[in-house]
Amino acid sequence: MNYKDINTLGELKKSGYKTLSVKDEIRKNLVEKIKSKDPIFEGIIGYEKSVIPSIVNSLLAKHDIILLGLRGQAKTKMARLIPTLLDEFIPVVKGSEINDDPYNPISKFAVDAIAANGDSTEIEWVSRDRRYSEKLATPDVNIADLIGDIDPIKAANQRLHYSHEGAIHFGIIPRTNRGVFVINELPDLQPRIQVGLLNIMQEKDIQIRGFNIRIPLDILMVFTANPEDYTNRGNIITPLKDRIDSQIITHYPKQLEDGIKITSTYSWTERDKKKKMVIPYYFREIIEMTAMQARSSEFVDQKSGVSARLTISSIENLISNAERRAIMNNDELIMPRMCDVISILPGITGKVELVFEGEQEGAVKVAKALISRSVREIFKKYFPDPLLKKKKTAAAEKEIKDPYAEIIEWFQYGGKVNIKDDMTFKEYMGELRKVDGLEKYVKKFTQYYESEQELASLMEFVLDGLHQNSKIAKDEIDSEIFYKDMVGSMFTQGGNYGGYEDEYYK
Prior knowledge:
By secondary structure, the chain is an alpha/beta fold.
């Protein structure tokens, strides 16, 4: 159908066009997507087997929906994707404020226009983008904003009595008639305003200022909210909750890889196109694991949640530190080093709510402890666990040699490594090569690197992994890192000899 060729109600009738309710329209298009096996909600990661099937079931049942979950669980993004299931265009009476269906007008304006002009009534085609509205619930939202009120200026200009239907100024919900309307953070809406939604949810109509009229709306309502036991700002009133057909629980990524995909999709990593950027995969894993550790930490308020924005900010800060070094040293390659990991702290400290015990320790210490645990976990994916007990072979009563023995012994004999985050690659690699056996050991794992720069980063990863497993000590002074012997560090005041989390988690 060529929409541009249909401009009047008569032409629309001749075309055989039939209108559907918004929920029937979404259902029809959803069924077609399911049949063709097309992606239903593109860009949503980790919900394929949980949240998306629940939303699909609800839309097939023509339900109004509430998405309930902690911060940063893509609730608003999911809601904004539902309008993609609408038709590309629908016809409305031209000039209508509430998208009147030409076959079934509900506003006085549209009814009068069709009564006066019949089949000559002009129509226009509205795109799906114009059929979506969204409102963030805040304490100052009132009934006039959502539903409407009497407009005295309109009444005066048109010389209408205040009881005349033409004096109504429609709110955002009726203006979304025949579309999808979303209210974010529903508990923040005052209870008396929530009451005003009851008729819309059940009887599908609105009343304004006690007028003896009813305007039947055709609308899909979608709400988002944090769990009620989290927010102290308000609750969803029971009658409204009862009228919302489906409550769908969202969640954080359950798999590390899903979280990494989300972070990679929404973080700004493409910086200077003149410089090559390489981000070893284990840096992404460390950052994502830090968020997962925070979501189970006893120092973090689990009712407030830890959003994906933590990992997005963290990876961007990590890259920025590497980029700053590349600019200072006029390097063509931007690549993070383990010494850069400390730069992700600003992306963590402002995004986790701490419980009382966490507040006592301080946000920075808790964040460092989370990073420390994360490095320890990811290190074991790439290299042997330094804490595994030595085993004896079946054939001989000889103990298997500790693969890190040569490295640790070098430190025991007084070796020290001093790494600064602004070092040139030559200085950086030279400092790491001082450690006996380190380069030789890391070179066994050729599958993890493709260049000298990646090899050097892995070498520092091994040192940090040994530190996090209490095999060597590590001190941090501003932007400098010192790796040294564990025993010697124990007698040095301020030495961080056992990893950040030791004093909190052991």
